[in-house]
Design a protein that fits this description.
The protein has helices at residues 15-25, 37-41, 85-91, 107-122, 165-173, 193-205, 218-232, 244-257, 283-286, 297-307, 330-344, 360-368; strands spanning 4-8, 62-71, 74-84, 95-103, 128-131, 146-149, 176-187, 208-212, 263-268, 271-280, 313-321, 349-352, 355-356, 372-383. The protein has 384 residues and is an alpha+beta fold. The chain folds into two domains: 4-183, Gcn5-related N-acetyltransferase (GNAT) (Aminopeptidase, 3-Layer(aba) Sandwich); 186-373, Gcn5-related N-acetyltransferase (GNAT) (Aminopeptidase, 3-Layer(aba) Sandwich).
Length: 384
C-alpha cells in the first residue's frame, strides 16, 4: 500500500487536514461525535482558543508535533507526539505521549504513524511512550484512551469512540496496557430508599451545607472547583494540578452548557469539603448529520444553544472530596440531591466517567447509585 507521512508542526495551516482525518475515517458512524472544530483550531466567532493553536496555554510547557498518513488526497490516519514538561517534572519521569490517534484498518499505516511519534519522542530523550490521549494523559485532559468495550453506545462529551480494531493494532505494535478507565450508566429514577435513608442520616449527624454553583460568578466558582480538585485528586494516577489558565478555559466551557443544579458544593463548618459536577451532554445536539453545511461549527453551535435546556443525557465529570472530609457520607448527600434535581428537570440518563479501574471508592459509589458498568477505555505504553 503506497502512502506517505506528512509532518505538521504547531501553527501550520495543514492542521486543518489533521482535524479532518476522523471526519473521513468515521463517515456515517452513528456513534461517533467530534468536538467543535473551533475547540481544536480556534474560533473568534465562538470565542474558542483552539488546543492545536500556539495561543493555547497547554503549549507554554509542552513541545508537540503532528503526523498525517495519506495516499494522494486520501486521508488514512493521524497521530500527535508531545512532551509535556510540566507532567514530567511533577512525576519525575521521562514520558512522551502519543495522542489524537486515528487510523484506517491497515497495520502498516498504524505502524508508520507510531514509528514517527516514537522516533520524535526518543529524539527528545524520552524513555517511555504512553497514550493515546489528547496531546497527553493528564487526568483532566479530554479524549483519553482507546475504547475497548461498549462500541454500541455513543460517546459523551470529551470522551472517545473508535472501532474495535484500534486496541488490536496498538497491541500488535508492542504497546501494553498501563491503565483502564470505566463508565457506568445510570437510569434517572426516584432516588432509592437506601440512598434517601443514608443521606438523611448523614445530614442529621453533621452540619453539611450544600449549594449549586452561581453562574453569575462562574470564574470564582471554578477557582473553588480547582481548589478541591488539586487536593482531592492529588494521589490519583495521571494527576497533574490544574493551572489558573486551565481554570479559565474550564469556566468558558461551563458558561455555555452548565446547569447549576447539576454542579454542587458541600461545606462543613463553613469550609469547602466536596464538589460534584455533572453536565448536560452537548454531544447530543453536536452529533454529525453528515451534511457539510449542517456540520459546520456555526450550525452545530446553534443546535447546541437551541436545545441545551432539553438535553436528556448528562455526564458526571468530576466528584471530589478533600481527604480530611472523606468517609463522612458527603457523597450520599450530593448524589441524592443531584439525582432528585435531574429527575425533576427531565434528565433520563447519567454517565459517571472516566473512572479509574482501581478507584474502588468511586466505582462502589457508582454502583450504589444504580449504575451499570457499560464501557471501558485503555491507555497503553512501551519503553523507547
Amino acid at each position: 500500500m503506497g502512502f506517505s507521512i506528512d509532518r505538521i508542526p504547531l501553527g501550520d495551516r495543514r492542521l486543518r487536514t489533521f482535524v479532518d482525518v476522523p471526519w473521513v475515517l468515521f463517515r456515517g458512524d452513528p456513534h461517533w461525535t467530534p468536538p467543535l472544530r473551533g475547540e481544536l483550531l480556534g474560533s473568534r466567532l465562538l470565542g474558542l482558543t483552539g488546543l492545536l493553536t500556539p495561543k493555547h496555554p497547554y503549549h507554554r510547557s509542552a513541545d508537540v508535533i503532528h503526523f498525517v498518513a495519506r495516499a494522494g488526497r486520501r486521508l488514512l490516519g493521524r497521530v500527535s507526539a508531545a512532551v509535556n514538561h510540566r507532567y514530567n517534572e511533577h512525576h519525575r519521569v521521562k514520558i512522551g505521549f502519543f495522542g489524537f490517534f486515528d487510523a484506517c484498518n491497515e497495520f502498516e499505516v498504524v505502524e508508520a504513524l507510531l514509528d514517527s511519534a516514537r522516533e520524535w519522542l526518543a529524539g527528545r530523550g524520552m524513555e517511555t511512550m504512553r497514550g493515546p490521549g489528547g496531546y497527553s494523559n493528564a487526568t483532566h485532559e479530554a479524549n483519553q484512551a482507546v475504547l475497548i468495550d461498549g462500541f454500541d453506545h455513543p460517546p459523551t462529551v470529551e470522551l472517545t469512540h473508535n472501532p474495535p480494531y484500534y486496541a488490536e493494532m496498538l497491541e500488535r505494535y508492542g504497546l501494553r496496557k498501563v491503565k483502564d478507565y470505566h463508565a457506568y450508566m445510570i437510569r434517572i429514577a426516584e432516588p432509592s430508599e437506601r440512598l434517601r435513608r443514608v443521606a438523611a442520616a448523614v445530614q442529621r449527624r453533621r452540619e453539611i451545607e450544600t449549594r449549586p454553583i452561581d453562574k453569575r460568578r462562574l470564574h470564582e466558582e471554578v477557582n473553588r472547583i480547582v481548589e478541591i480538585y488539586n487536593e482531592a485528586w492529588a494521589n490519583n494516577w495521571g494527576f497533574l494540578p490544574l493551572t489558573d489558565d486551565e481554570a479559565g478555559a474550564m469556566a468558558d466551557t461551563l458558561q455555555l452548557v452548565a446547569d447549576p443544579g447539576l454542579l454542587r458544593f458541600a461545606s462543613i463548618d463553613g469550609e469547602l469539603a466536596a464538589v460534584l459536577g455533572a453536565l448536560p451532554d452537548p454531544f447530543v445536539p453536536l452529533q454529525p448529520t453528515w451534511n457539510r453545511l449542517r456540520d459546520a461549527d456555526l450550525m452545530r453551535g446553534l443546535r447546541l444553544l437551541r436545545t441545551r435546556h432539553r438535553i436528556p443525557r448528562m455526564r458526571l465529570m468530576f466528584f471530589g472530596v478533600r481527604p480530611r472530609f472523606r468517609k463522612l457520607g458527603i457523597d450520599a448527600v450530593l448524589y441524592h440531591q443531584v439525582l432528585a434535581y435531574a429527575l425533576s428537570h427531565g434528565y433520563t440518563t447519567c454517565e459517571p466517567s472516566l473512572l479509574l479501574e482501581d478507584n474502588d471508592l468511586i466505582l462502589r459509589a457508582s454502583s450504589f447509585m444504580g449504575g451499570v458498568h457499560y464501557k471501558t477505555w485503555r491507555i497503553y505504553e512501551m519503553p523507547l
